[in-house]
Design a protein that fits this description.
By secondary structure, this protein is of the alpha+beta class. 23% of the residues lie in helices and 36% in strands. The chain starts with a helix and ends with a strand. The N terminus is likely disordered.
């Protein structure tokens, strides 16, 4: 279990961070998210499915005892899932939500579990909102502010709406590419500065954004 603690996603992302000047990620995660709506049309939760890169995944399960070699059941992976989720609580699960421009508070993660397929781990978990909301505009970003972990939305299915009112529409906005060396763009530099001020870390500058607008 000590080794499981050492390789847990958020534990690694924080324990190894005197190197805040290191501007490249060490773990790569593909994110699929689902915004869950209640019968009254209010957003009630975010469901995540995070698939870790194969190198991290293979290392994470090394030495894990299983009934069948190379096969890891949900029960086998339960302790690792719990460590990952509980470790991320302090950092709001790297999930940043704004409703009509205001930060949204999240409750503790629930219904969390891990699966292992094709040499890659996928962490599933649900983040309830502390209060249901009916915003006209909702923004969702998933990122590690220190950019130790690269969390990128899936290219084909980054997010979906579950039970949303028919007038709600979803869109994905990707971050602007970096300015080539030797070139400057004052407006983009100003936006990058304001983004770093708002999110207190460089990770937000590399984050894609899911936006939902309801009439």
């Amino acid at each position: 279990m000590i080794r499981r603690l050492a390789i847990a996603l958020a534990a690694a992302a924080t324990a190894m961070l005197p190197q805040q000047g290191s501007a490249h990620p060490h773990v790569y995660v593909v994110v699929k998210s689902e915004l869950v709506y209640g019968p009254d049309g209010a957003v009630t939760a975010i469901k995540h499915a995070w698939t870790f890169d194969d190198m991290f995944s293979v290392y994470a399960v090394q030495g894990l005892e299983t009934k069948q070699k190379g096969v890891y059941t949900r029960e086998d992976l339960a302790p690792l899932a719990e460590v990952n989720v509980t470790s991320m609580k302090e950092y709001d699960y790297f999930t940043h939500i704004k409703a009509d421009g205001k930060k949204v508070s999240l409750a503790d993660a629930k219904d969390y579990w891990l699966e292992y397929n094709d040499s890659m781990l996928t962490l599933h978990f649900t983040l309830p909102l502390k209060a249901g909301l009916k915003p006209k505009a909702l923004d969702l970003e998933v990122y590690d502010p220190e950019y130790f972990v690269d969390l990128s939305f899936d290219e084909k299915e980054p997010a979906r709406l579950a039970g949303a009112p028919g007038q709600c529409k979803l869109a994905l906005t990707k971050p602007e590419p970096p300015v080539p060396v030797g070139q400057t763009d004052p407006q983009r530099l100003d936006r990058a500065f304001r983004a770093s001020e708002a999110f207190a870390g460089m990770g937000g500058q590399f984050a894609s954004k899911i936006s939902v607008k309801c009439q």
